[in-house]
Amino acid sequence: MSAELAAVARMLIAARSVCVSTGAGMSVESGLDTFRGDDGLWSKVDVSDMATPEAFRRDPVKVWAWYRRRREKLARVEPHDGHRVLAEWEARVPDFTLVTQNIDGLHHRAGSRRVIELHGRLDSARCVRCDYRVRTLDDLGPEPLCPACRERLRPDVVWFGEVLPPGAIEAAYAAAQRCDVFLVIGTSGVVQPAASLIDVAKTYHAGVVEINPNPSELSYLADVCIRSGCCAALTAIDVEWRKLAS
């Protein structure tokens, strides 16, 4: 493992452009639930009841109650050291982009600023009519209304059947194209279009690093695989980086 950690550290030291793609594995290590797997969120509820525009139109109070419970849990967790390491790397690399499928905002809370959130934010709500946004983890009530136009507020996340936020995937593809090193961290590699970023980076000759305790659908594309948890791997790579740079 030490050889792999040192190899990744050397890649990062030499890089002028780095793109990082994170998935649910980052959030799990802060204490949040994953979506897929035997004990994931989608094993406990029907997607069509909680995460589609149709479900919200059918029963907004029910959908908001589910998201309220998730927001309450998010308010009780904190970013881990892996989140903070990525925020520190942003300051060291001239061109650093963090692309995340996660909706928890933990990267921002850890200090990252150049973040592309493909699937929205759990701590945000937006109006279904005028796109007014409210960012808070406070209880917005059973059926919150927009303060601007009095239409319904909805969770500001991307539901099944919806398009990604305007410009998000285009910016992510651009970062993957220009990066020297691409790190894919804590993702199963089955959710598109996020999973295709690694193909873009590989096509444009970036060095590709996978950090995941288990092999994924993307492992065959990686130049270096770190079989470890996200936090442990990132902090260990950071130690090697500092050691080699001193």
Question: Can you walk me through this structure?
Answer:
The protein has helices at 2-14, 24-28, 47-50, 53-58, 60-74, 81-92, 106-110, 168-178, 197-203, 230-245; strands at residues 17-22, 95-100, 115-117, 120-127, 133-135, 153-157, 181-185, 207-211, 224-226. With 246 residues, the protein is an alpha/beta fold. The protein folds into 2 domains: 2-32 and 79-119 and 164-245, Rossmann fold (3-Layer(aba) Sandwich), CATH 3.40.50.1220; 41-75 and 127-157, SIR2/SIRT2 'Small Domain' (2-Layer Sandwich). The strands form 2 sheets. It has a 6-stranded parallel beta sheet with strand order 3-2-1-7-8-9, sandwiched between helices. It has a 3-stranded antiparallel beta sheet with strand order 5-4-6, covered by helices on one side. β7 (181-185), α9 and β8 form a beta-alpha-beta unit. The radius of gyration is 19 Å and the shape is elongated.
Order of secondary-structure elements: HEHHHHHEHEEEEHEHEEH
CATH architecture tag of the largest domain:
3-Layer(aba) Sandwich
Give the overall shape.
elongated
Q: In which order are the strands of the major sheet placed? A: 3-2-1-7-8-9
Helix-strand makeup class: alpha/beta
Topology (elements, then pairings):
Blueprint: H1 2-14, E1 17-22, H2 24-28, H3 47-50, H4 53-58, H5 60-74, H6 81-92, E2 95-100, H7 106-110, E3 115-117, E4 120-127, E5 133-135, E6 153-157, H8 168-178, E7 181-185, H9 197-203, E8 207-211, E9 224-226, H10 230-245
Parallel strand pairs: 1-2, 1-7, 2-3, 7-8, 8-9
Antiparallel strand pairs: 4-5, 4-6
Helix pairs in contact: 1-10, 6-10, 8-9
